[in-house]
Design brief:
By secondary structure, the protein is α/β, with parallel strands linked by helices. 48% of the residues lie in helices and 11% in strands. The chain has one domain. The chain is built from 11 helices and 4 strands; from the N terminus they run E-H-E-H-H-H-E-H-E-H-H-H-H-H-H. The termini are close together. The relative contact order is 0.17.
């Protein structure tokens, strides 16, 4: 089995990679970056001409609508799933009306709205092959429970909060692939996740883990 990942950025993909590996036992070779592309060759550059297609929510939106790389990936036997990642921090910019943050069930509601929007972009294609990594409000909020036993489900300015928490521990907060791979390393260990109660502190993190367990784990057992 191979899983493709479409994410807003490389750092986001690092976190998603560790989560999937920790939940499923798959290794790096089983998980492929679809967007952003790690190393672009001339063929990639010809297919993906717009600068925004190398990162950000607009890159995710454009690929979901065109499905150039998605269809190519899923057409190969054994390449069964594509992860679609979006942060909700800018959801108003990609057509999602944000629910009232003060209402109960905010995280669940905004995740559902973003998934509906993604599905509208994808159009007439079976949604069984997709996993939705919707981070409320940023993927940085998924990392916070590793370093602070507090709820980060709807935290404002998660990136700045994570930087503050890490600074107190003399840890690097640089938002890049390699550093986020290190920071999110505890997600590789299911016992550490359970012991640290990480999933109890972030609703959207738990929602993604549940999705991976529900869709991928049964196929691995067949």
């Amino acid at each position: 089995m191979r899983i493709g990942v479409i994410s807003e950025g490389h750092a986001d993909r690092a976190v998603i990679l560790n989560i999937i590996k920790g939940v499923t036992g798959l290794d790096d070779s089983d998980i492929k970056a679809i967007l952003p592309i790690r190393a672009l060759d001339e063929t990639d550059k010809a297919r993906l001409k717009a600068k925004e297609e190398f990162g950000g929510w607009s890159s995710v939106k454009n690929e979901c609508e065109k499905r150039t790389l998605i269809d190519e990936f899923l057409s190969i036997e054994g390449q069964d799933f594509v992860v679609i990642h979006l942060d909700t921090a800018e959801c108003h910019e990609y057509g999602v009306q944000r629910p009232n943050k003060k209402e109960n069930g905010y995280s669940k509601k905004v995740i559902e709205l973003v998934i509906d929007q993604v599905n509208s972009w994808l159009g007439a294609i079976s949604k069984n092959s997709f996993l939705y990594a919707i981070a409320v409000e940023e993927t940085d909020a998924w990392i916070l429970p590793i370093f602070e036993s507090k709820d980060s489900s709807t935290i404002y300015k998660a990136k700045e909060k994570l930087a503050t928490v890490l600074a107190k521990k003399d840890l690097n907060s640089k938002s890049d692939y390699n550093n986020f791979l290190i920071l999110s390393k505890p997600f590789l260990n299911s016992r550490a996740v359970k012991r640290g109660k990480f999933l109890d502190y972030n609703y959207s993190l738990k929602a993604f883990v549940d999705e991976v367990q529900t869709k991928i784990s049964p196929k691995l057992q067949n």
